[in-house]
Amino acid sequence: MSDENEMLRENLEAQLERLVQQLSDLEECRSDMTDDEYNESKEDTVEQLKEFNDRLNKITAGDMTIHDNLSIMRLATSAAITKAFQTPSIIKMFAKNEPNALKDKRNQIERNMKLGKLSLEMGNRQKLEVLTALRHLGCELTDSDKIFIREETSKLQSSMPSNGFNISDSLNGFGMKLPLFQSYKLFIYKCDNYYLLVISKVRIFMTLKTL
């Protein structure tokens, strides 16, 4: 990477870290805020993330060198916008491509769950975020980790309301033929009025409005 591109990457990392820190500060101060104050501040931060993501898309368009170097940052930003990832520290580690820090975070999550400092639901949610990030960073997962991802993803899918949303129709609606994806891992996250589809082998995020 050239010095100019390296400087650009560092600048973008700093901007994203600032936005993720805003999310973290919001969660820490939530009990001191009214619902309106919290929601307004959260929406403002998400809007800034969307603007940042739009800038990333423009910067990487047509330049494969920059595109490759910033691809993980784009995935992390998309995950934050759609709330597929809801833990600021995990989003930050994912965006900065820090697999060792993510592994340490996973150990911390499991330790806090054993000590009763973290509920089963929240702990499993955070662990799923960590393992999903590690998979996208190309880290080898154990068989038990893969089973955990499969089971937790299944729970997310089963908790989705039956509203006519059809995976096959939606994929084909993007001009994609399903046989192309038969050997790929597909994860679906429900995020407010959006579904986040993650096709892990090719590392694609697609955001679809619910029907």
Strand content: 5-15%
Order of helices and strands: HHHHHHHHEEE
Strand order of the largest sheet: 1-2-3
If helices are DSSP runs of H or I spanning 4 or more residues, what is the number of helices?
Answer: 8
> Mean pLDDT, as a whole number?
76
Biggest pleated sheet: 3 strands, antiparallel
End-to-end C-alpha gap: 43 Å
Q: Percent helix among the residues? A: 55-70%
Q: What structural class is derived from the secondary structure elements?
A: mainly alpha
**Cα radius of gyration in angstroms:** 18 Å
Enumerate the spans where pLDDT stays under 50 for 5 or more consecutive residues: 162-211
Number of E strands: 3
What is the 3D shape? globular
List keywords for this structure.
globular, disordered C terminus, mainly alpha, three-stranded antiparallel sheet, 8 helices
Describe what you observe in this structure.
There is one protein chain. The protein has 211 residues and is mostly helical. It has eight helices and three strands. It starts with a helix and ends with a strand. α1 (3-28) runs antiparallel to α2 (35-60) and α5 runs antiparallel to α6.
Map the helices and strands:
Elements: H1 3-28, H2 35-60, H3 64-82, H4 88-95, H5 99-114, H6 120-136, H7 143-158, H8 167-173, E1 186-191, E2 194-199, E3 204-209
Antiparallel strand pairs: 1-2, 2-3
Helix pairs in contact: 1-2, 1-3, 1-4, 2-3, 3-4, 5-6, 6-7
